[in-house]
Amino acid sequence: MSEQQHDSTPVLQANGLVKAFGRVVGLDGCDLELYPGEVLAVIGDNGAGKSTLIKCLTGAEIPDAGRLQVHGKEVRFTSPQSARDVGIETVYQTLAVAPSLDIAANLFLGREERRAGPLGSVLRMMDRAGMRDKARRELTALGISTLQDVTVPVENLSGGQRQAVAVARAAAFGSKVVILDEPTAALGVRESKQVLGLIDTLRSRGIPVILISHNMPQVFEIADRIHVQRLGRRAAVITPQSHSMTDAVAIMTGASAGDKAA
To answer: Which residues form a coiled coil (predicted)?
Structure first.
């Protein structure tokens, strides 16, 4: 990521987020900045607050304190839909795809388009041809060559292809931010590389990505900056150029304080 990007206004920013579940503190004054056109990896040990942070960024949880900003404007998400409304799309580890529906129908799931004129407005008929055409264009733009037949049911796809469908859906509608939660966790080496290629394509299109991952080699391969989460807070922000994987693990476990910003 260039200095110009780093100096620009964050696309998404969190300041002092606090979230408690009874006596369990999920977030304890957590900060995060995501800049235009970057891949920001979020890493941390189990219980570090990664999932709670992402849920607060996407409207799945409402923080008890702190503030969120999108392009410098303060926002308050009360549901995942309110985050989607401002262009933040999330692909969770448990893929929210409909196996019996085809690829195109999954890309437009919850955003189905109706046919023009009375057929759509009165008879409420879906524009299946139009959605399939747009789905093909989106898959082509993302360089996904293995999913050209958008009429194939998702249940017939491999794990990597299903992940590609979910990422393509997020890219098609996530105009500002795409958040990926462990996108390669259940994939083999070849399919993992395809997903990393998708992430790189999103970045090249100017769409910033937050990547939550336990896979340190992949993080250091694809990320511009790495947000290290520990004990409900941001312990450090590092880069693959400034720190090694050993350094990152040391910060995660508290063996090293790390640098606060990169």
So the answer is: none
Closest CA to 34 of 253, 204, 203: 203
pLDDT digits (tens, 9 = 90+) for 37-84: 999 999 999 999 999 999 999 999 999 999 999 999 999 999 999 999
Tell me the helices (H) and strands (E) count for the chain, helix number first: 10, 10
User: Could you give the CA distance from residue 37 to residue 57 in angstroms, rounded to a whole number?
Assistant: 18
CA atoms within 13 A of residue 182's CA, in its CB half-sphere: 11
**E runs forming strands in the chain:** 12-21, 24-34, 39-44, 65-70, 73-75, 88-91, 177-181, 209-212, 225-230, 233-238
State both tokens at 123.
């008879």
So what's the pLDDT on residue 159? Answer: 83
191 with 218: CB under 8 angstroms?
A: no
* Ramachandran category for residue 124: left, alpha or beta (phi over 0 → left; psi -120 to 50 → alpha): left
**C-alpha distances in Å from residue 52, one per residue of 4, 79, 198:** 30, 14, 25
Q: pTM value?
A: 0.87
Per-residue tokens: 190: 């070849």
3-state secondary structure of 255: coil
Candidates 237, 247, 257; CA nearest to 33 is 237
CB atoms within 10 A of CB 201: 16
- Helix or strand or coil: residue 14? strand
d(CA 94, CA 91): 8
Q: What is the DSSP string of 94-150?
A: S----TTSBHHHHHTTT---BPSTHHHHTS--B-HHHHHHHHHHHHHHTT-GGG--T
Supply 109's token pair: 């799931």
Helix, strand, or coil here: 217?
helix
